[in-house]
Amino acid sequence: MKNRLVFATGNPNKVKEISQVIGDYMEIVSLKEIGCEEELPETNPTIEANAIQKAQYVVDHYKVDCFSEDTGLEIESLNGEPGVYSARYAGTEKNADANMNLVLQKLGDHTNRKAQFRTVIALIRNGDIKTFEGIVKGKIAFDKTGKDGFGYDPIFVPDGFDKSFAEMSAAEKNSISHRARAVAKLQKYLETSI
Ligand code: IMP
Questions:
Q1: Residue bearing the CA closest to ligand 1, atom 11
Q2: What is the 1 CA–ligand 1 centroid distance (Å)?
């Protein structure tokens, strides 16, 4: 029988992505399935602390082991912005298009367009906290391209490619993405520690 683990996220895109990567090995249980429909708190100033905060909330309120993840887009010439504020960069309504427009506007025609996506997964089992980081480096395009993916995908071109994440198939994105890299570390840890 597959192991079951709750994934503490309200974002169905992330559940889909992570299930595609980890699915054969483990059954990912969504928050909805455990009756958690409220928005998880993420009020900390770092990606790491937010990941832990979200997982801890679910552990405390639903008494299950779980993992959560937090991701930020870190742009070198914007001093790491939007970083931990990626979801609400252009306002509290979390509008992906407005967020991308703000990034493109702030960068203007700046030549240093280096950026990275950074994911931190926090796993809490039996009260024990472990974190796993995944990074993909790339650059910010001058325009949005592609229709797939979500969030900042249309303006992020990973190193070694000449197309954005939003122009890639799910499988192609999953083969190199920040989240897939963090999940691979989580998976390796789970395989050796269960
Ligand atoms: P959070 O981890 O849900 O707080 O996400 C932070 C922000 O980064 C949101 O605006 C997401 O849409 C965006 N984001 C997270 N993962 C990705 C990704 O894989 N591609 C593009 N944007 C992402």
A1: 151
A2: 32
Instruction: Let me know if 70 is a catalytic residue.
Output: yes
Cα separation, 7 vs 18, whole angstroms: 9
- Give nearest CA residue, ligand 1 atom 12: 151
pTM for this model (two decimals): 0.92
Q: Which member of 60, 65, 70, 109 is catalytic?
A: 70
Per-residue pLDDT of the chain (194 residues), as tens digits, is 567 789 998 888 888 878 887 767 778 899 999 999 999 999 999 999 999 999 999 999 999 999 999 999 999 999 999 999 999 999 988 899 999 999 999 999 999 999 999 999 999 999 999 999 999 999 999 999 999 889 999 999 999 999 999 999 989 999 999 999 999 999 889 888 86
CA of 148: how far to CAs of 71, 98, 134, 144, 145, in Å? Answer: 18, 17, 21, 11, 9
Q: Which CATH class is domain 3-193?
A: alpha beta
Cα(128) to centroid of ligand 1, in Å?
A: 26
Residues within a 6 A CB radius of ligand 1: 11, 70-73, 86-87, 96, 99, 117, 149-153, 165, 177, 179
**Helices within 91-177 (DSSP H only):** 96-107, 170-176
